[in-house]
């Protein structure tokens, strides 16, 4: 097993991890980024709310641009998945992945999370093909005035339904036949907003000309939509931190101080695994704060 040294280990190669790597590289620090290749950003079909990309940018294109920038400033990027993270007696960290072990003075966790996919046939392919979207903040503006479906069941996210209602007069909540945890007050809010609820099961989704067809079991004709969003929450990848005793909320989102440091000294976090708004711009901002704090916490460099 090979062993490497780093001033800072960054775990995760999404927008947060790549932003931090660029900052720390420009601070002339010895940086190692280990990425499993499962960034949530890679699933973005196109985003129009990133400043500087007025015509939109796809997730894979954005990540490629950010990777090229990281490489320009000397941070090392390795493909792999960190399997264990330990805090050593001197306050530094040891991390192991498939091909080796790294010793680092500081660690930034930017592992993010994955959206919970609807329990429907070929859900992952439906997302990849653009039949299901996850971020109305990113692209609901482009669906203004069109017919929108929202997959929501279990702990129904009433705020997301009301957000979408601001973009369309034709909004339907699809429970896919699963029970919802709607209070009487929430039900009244949906009804007052003119939002329809379809409690029947949906067997599959398909593309029908320029529409998305939601096929109900036993029905010959599908429900037709222009866009379908899913609001089922995220599964956060914060176990490396919580295993060290880092504080987190019930959903696994890590608690951090104003400098993005978790409750474990020397362990920082940025992006979707931190409680707050899941947006690329927010992740990048958190990473900039964390990287600057990490640089200040390391011994000063001499040119």
Structure report:
The chain is of the alpha/beta class and 303 residues long. The protein has 2 domains: 2-114 and 234-297, 3-Layer(bba) Sandwich (FAD/NAD(P)-binding domain), CATH 3.50.50; 117-230, FAD/NAD(P)-binding domain, CATH 3.50.50.60. 25% of the residues lie in helices and 26% in strands. It contains 8 helices and 16 strands. The strands form 4 sheets. Strands 1, 2, 3, 4, 5, 6 and 16 form a 7-stranded mixed β-sheet that branches. Strands 10-9-8-14 form a 4-stranded parallel β-sheet, covered by helices on one side. α2 links the parallel β2 and β3. α1 (15-26) packs parallel to α2 (59-72) and α1 runs parallel beside α8 (280-297). It starts with a strand and ends in a 6-residue tail after the last helix. The model has no long low-confidence stretch (mean pLDDT 91).
Give the helix/strand layout.
Layout: E1 2-11, H1 15-26, E2 31-35, H2 59-72, E3 76-79, E4 84-87, E5 93-97, E6 100-109, E7 113-115, H3 123-128, H4 136-139, E8 148-151, H5 158-165, E9 171-174, H6 184-192, E10 196-198, E11 202-208, E12 211-216, E13 223-225, E14 227-230, E15 234-236, H7 239-242, E16 267-269, H8 280-297
Parallel strand pairs: 1-2, 1-6, 2-3, 6-16, 8-9, 8-14, 9-10
Antiparallel strand pairs: 4-5, 5-6, 7-15, 11-12, 12-13
Helix pairs in contact: 1-2, 1-8
